[in-house]
Amino acid sequence: MTQAPVTPKAARRRHDREIVALAVPAFGALVAEPLFLMADSAIVGHLGTSQLAGLAVASALLTTAVSVFVFLAYATTAAVARRVGAGDTRAAIQQGMDGIWLALLLGAAVVAVVLPTAPGLVSLFGASDTAAPYATTYLRISTLGIPAMLVVLAATGVLRGLQNTKTPLYVAVAGFVANGVLNLALVYGAGLGIAGSAWGTVIAQFGMAAIYLIVVVRGARRHGASLRPDLAGIRACAQAGTPLLVRTLALRAVLMIATAVAARLGDADVAAHQIILSLWSLLAFALDAIAIAGQAIIGRYLGADDAEGARDVCRRMVQWGIAAGVVLGVLVVVTRPLFVPLFTSDPVVQDAALPALIVVALSQPICGIVFVLDGVLMGAGDGPYLAWAMLITLAVFTPIALLVPVLGGGLTAVWGAMTLMMAVRMATLWVRYRSGRWVVTGATR
Can you cite an annotated GO cellular component (predicted)? Predict the structure, then answer.
């Protein structure tokens, strides 16, 4: 009996179900990181503007130290999903275990570097004399949690590649609740100030890492994957992640430059920048939920040698990205008068933040396209192109951002430069998407 052909409408429905099934729980897990930072910002912000300014500098440095290794999640998702599509679950989990071992090694190295250099890093960012002590305290304590953060990244990538985004959601919710309770108890209950906020986050991160390890180890034993470190596998993970490391370093350089420019505008501006960056990160992770679904789905389709299915779901995800960006932009405009006072009662900081949020709102449809295409190309294992595209973007953004204080521009101009950066990213990613060169099938690229 001949099977009836799948209609375009039926195919869209199937893709929508796949996207929703992975993206909705992925959203909850993804927003955990910015929610951690937002909770810290809200709690520390009521200690004073200097403390919030110190948190802004320290969190930018800390996020950079962790996020440069986001390939532990992204590259692992793509590699595991390809092997799942090819029907080899044992090899998929083994790939993930190699990534976890690599995460532990990298985490130890980062701690060894950041702890002794914390005061110098804070000074390099141009923190004021009043904000620098708070920034150094927060950075030193939070650095101790970096190994746990990297394990969380790698283990999350394993589960996403296995088409499981629900477990990361449950762990993220538990971690966020624990972080909030610990921060309130240590900052105000124990009177530890900004140090209490840092310790609360570190404890929550180690708890999350422990849960992930239990889940992944059980899966490895069930499918016969080895738990021992394999030097060849660890080396292969590092090599596969190198282009994404370059891409992420360039992206983090953009965010660091933006924070450094804001810091030189004054404590009020950098405090407002911290509030906006917290919201921008939340919006970015919300959009990235579709991209995470794309990484897992695209990798699975390509691993199963279904190039046409990969193209179809990519087109559908771009449509989702645009629609989500429009909705988020409207929400930012409507809620901005209510959002900013949650983080500070200082009218100077509020006046700096409100107009810049309009620019952030207008940029959201562009961000929707960027994050989706970024995720699709990661899922396809197209890391080298992503690296070059982000380097081009950095080269365009840097001179424009550095001109902001020279020309007398304020925080709104800084976020105008950020919007231009996203537009350049969109152009470079769209060219690759339209070329079709990212479509390479097989269990490995």
Answer: plasma membrane
